[in-house]
Amino acid sequence: EAQVTQNPRYLITVTGKKLTVTCSQNMNHEYMSWYRQDPGLGLRQIYYSMNVEVTDKGDVPEGYKVSRKEKRNFPLILESPSPNQTSLYFCASSLSGGRDPGELFFGEGSRLTVL
Amino acid sequence: DQQVKQNSPSLSVQEGRISILNCDYTNSMFDYFLWYKKYPAEGPTFLISISSIKDKNEDGRFTVFLNKSAKHLSLHIVPSQPGDSAVYFCAAAIQGAQKLVFGQGTRLTINP
């Protein structure tokens, strides 16, 4: 089954404790991206990657890091989480390779709470 | 700077009637528009798209209309069904620019 898998789905952590949200897709997609969803703000892009070893900032990259060492994986790293990073996070992938946005396939989301 | 706006946070419609969800954008460079549907505890799923060279695209009960001069698009669902109850996001893109800009979302509730 074609899917984008995120882990963990739910996480409560404390300020400053480094965490990683993993994302894996099994569709051989070139393009992957991270979004956060906040009330009244919709989905905002954090980082995206057009292919292995190619990443770039989205609209709200502050406080986040990403890496793309393999085509299927695109982890989101919060080096020192803060309460304003409490949010619902979505990973997404697309076949288009970044030439066009195309149809994004989303994971089920990871709800993060930073105390 | 919200480039894509969905000004109605929620909409309630009777089953069998038409649902109309609206979306406005400010960037005239956008040339590709999409609608996504999101159920609770799930990720958004692609619903329908339209290129700026068209003013209408249909897929079954779903039709998207694009008015470029007004920088406005709308999603029509006819007839509305209880399973259509979800949050709907519109998104806009510049082809080749590798990103989608999403609106805030509209929660649609279909009442039996």
Question: Could you describe the 3D structure shown?
Answer:
- The complex is a heterodimer of chains A (115) and B (112).
- Chain A is mainly beta and 115 residues long.
- Helix content of chain A is 0%, strand content 50%.
- In chain A, strand 4 and strand 5 form a beta hairpin.
- In chain A, strands 2, 4, 5, 6, 9, 10 and 11 form a 7-stranded mixed sheet that branches.
- Chain A has no helices and 11 strands.
- Chain B has 112 residues and is mainly beta.
- Chain B is 0% helix and 54% strand.
- Chain B is built from no helices and 11 strands.
- In chain B, strands 2, 4, 5, 9, 10 and 11 form a 6-stranded mixed sheet that branches.
- At the A-B interface, strand 4, strand 5 and strand 10 of A face strand 4, strand 5, strand 9 and strand 10 of B.
Computed structural class of chain B: mainly beta
Helix content of chain B: under 10%
Mean of residue pLDDT values of chain A: 92
Which sheet architecture does the biggest sheet of chain B show? 6 strands, mixed
Give the strand tally of chain B. Answer: 11
* Uncertain spans of chain B: none
Radius of gyration of chain A: 13 Å
How many strands, what sense, and barrel or not for the largest sheet of chain A? 7 strands, mixed
**What is the N-to-C order of secondary-structure elements of chain A (H for helix, E for strand)?**
EEEEEEEEEEE
